[in-house]
Amino acid sequence: MGRSERELVTSLRAELASIDPSRPCDRRAEAAGLGSTPPREGAVARLAVRLGRGRGRPVKGTGVEGAGAAVAAAVAGAEGPAAGETDFDWATAAEHCRMAYLRGLFLARGSLSLAGGRTHLEFVVAPDEAANLARCLGEAELPASWRVRRGRGVVTWKSGDTVGLFLRRIGAAGAILELEARQVSRALRGDLNRVINAESANLQRAVGAAGRQIAAIGELEGDGRLAEQPYVVRSVAQARRETPEATLAELAERLGIHRSAVQRALERIERLVLHPDEGAGRRGRRAGRLHRRARPSRSTRALA
């Protein structure tokens, strides 16, 4: 049995939190991304301990605070570099440092939702930081939308492809494979449902059309008008009565004529029932008049 969406997200966050950057610059960048927000999960708290640094100054270039009191308290006085070493400047940072920073920011201020078959990832930051963070993500070819919601800045992705690319770039591996497998399976189920619905609708239309055509053929045959029609129309009418489930293409193949000829013949049959005088010669028009006269009048039907 597959894991639930909540379990998958928890596993993905634990996987990201277990990454131990080897470069000192990446460690400082990820600590800056974690900021001073108290860790919400044990895995993130342990990451804060591993990245433990002294109190940092505000991050330059993004407006997001550097590693601060929460990390310093987690390491309980462990030695670290000077405060300025935790500063992070997005504009001058290398690509690997940017991804380390975004990994820390996601673990501290990001959330991922997979409920209802929809992929939704968002960062919740200070209102004045949202626009700048969206700009930085755009520079990383991860364009995001942003807005202010209940006094907080929210930077959002709703595209499954963009979310998958982001998670892959910040280091997710095993969990992202399962996430992508679920997305592919969901897309295949959606495509299959659309195909089944389309085929069902086509079948219903075909059955309805065949029923109307057989009823029309019976009426034309009953009043003798079918015998006055051209050979192709009579042949198509006979084939339709013998194989009511056949498609237009199958009827055409059986009779050795074009599909369009079959379609025109059946349309003519239905049209003659609705308009008895249309497409008939003198005998046909006379039969149509006799057919109408044979019908009881409205007053006669009322008396009956």
Secondary structure tally, helices: 13
**Broad CATH class of the largest domain:** Alpha Beta
Number of domains: 2
pLDDT under 50 segments (min length 5)? Answer: 53-86, 299-304
Characterize the overall form.
rod-shaped
Strand content: 5-15%
The fold-level CATH name of the largest domain is Endonuclease I-creI
Give, in order, the helices and strands: HHHHHEEHEEHHHHHHH
CATH superfamily of the largest domain: Homing endonucleases
Largest sheet: 4 strands, antiparallel
Percent helix among the residues? Answer: 55-70%
User: Pairing-aware structural class of the strands and helices?
Assistant: alpha+beta
* Strand count: 4
Mean pLDDT: 79
Radius of gyration: 36 Å
Record the SSE blueprint.
Blueprint: H1 5-17, H2 24-34, H3 42-50, H4 69-75, H5 95-109, E1 110-113, E2 120-125, H6 130-139, E3 145-149, E4 152-157, H7 160-169, H8 174-222, H9 231-242, H10 248-255, H11 259-274, H12 282-294, H13 298-303
Antiparallel strand pairs: 1-2, 2-4, 3-4
Helix pairs in contact: 1-8, 2-5, 3-4, 7-8, 8-11, 9-10, 9-11, 10-11
